[in-house]
């Protein structure tokens, strides 16, 4: 039987509990009402949720924000190491280390991060 954690399904109008399930890729959370509700959320290997569960629109904003943020540290020749990029995120967004995780962001925070990262990259390239 799947383990129940006190996580509410983020899909609009659902509000059911989410349960920890196993997949071939590892553990994840899904709505207890699955398949009627397809709400899901990622998990660390130990079952700890990856951030705060979000609806589809917020998930998309988080993925888009991560794609842009990762430009600071992932490509060959990127301007920062991973840890330095996260330090820059905390500085740019005015967040504590505990709060500076895109998996906790709402849509507005995601949009703000994208804008700030683009500005930072432009400044580093000398185009602003």
Can you put this structure into words, describing what you see?
This protein has 128 residues and is an alpha+beta fold. 35% of the residues lie in helices and 17% in strands. The protein folds into 2 domains: 40 residues, no CATH class; 70 residues. The protein has a 4-stranded antiparallel beta sheet, with no helix packed on it. Helix 1 packs parallel to helix 3. The model has no long low-confidence stretch (mean pLDDT 91).
Structural key phrases:
4-stranded antiparallel β-sheet; single chain; 3 helices; 128 residues; 2 domains; alpha+beta
Mean pLDDT: 91
Number of helices: 3
Briefly note the structural class of the backbone: alpha+beta
The string of secondary-structure elements, in order, is EEEEHHH
Quickly count the domains.
Answer: 2
Could you list the spans in which at least 5 consecutive residues all have pLDDT below 50?
Answer: none
Helix residue percentage = 25-40%
**Spatial strand arrangement across the major sheet:** 1-2-3-4
Major sheet details: 4 strands, antiparallel
- End-to-end span in angstroms? 56 Å
| Strands, total number | 4
Strand content: 15-25%
- Note the overall shape: elongated
Oligomer class: single chain
């Amino acid at each position: 039987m799947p383990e129940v954690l006190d996580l509410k399904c983020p899909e609009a109008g659902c509000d059911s509990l989410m349960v920890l399930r196993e997949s071939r890729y590892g553990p994840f959370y899904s709505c207890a009402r699955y398949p009627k509700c397809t709400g899901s959320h990622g998990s660390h290997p130990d079952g700890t949720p990856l951030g705060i569960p979000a609806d589809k629109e917020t998930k998309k904003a988080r993925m888009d924000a991560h794609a842009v943020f990762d430009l600071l540290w992932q490509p060959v020749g990127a301007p920062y190491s991973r840890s330095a990029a996260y330090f820059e995120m905390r500085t740019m967004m005015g967040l504590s280390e505990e709060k500076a995780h895109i998996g906790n962001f709402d849509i507005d925070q995601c949009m703000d991060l994208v804008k700030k990262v683009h500005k930072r990259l432009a400044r580093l390239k000398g185009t602003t």
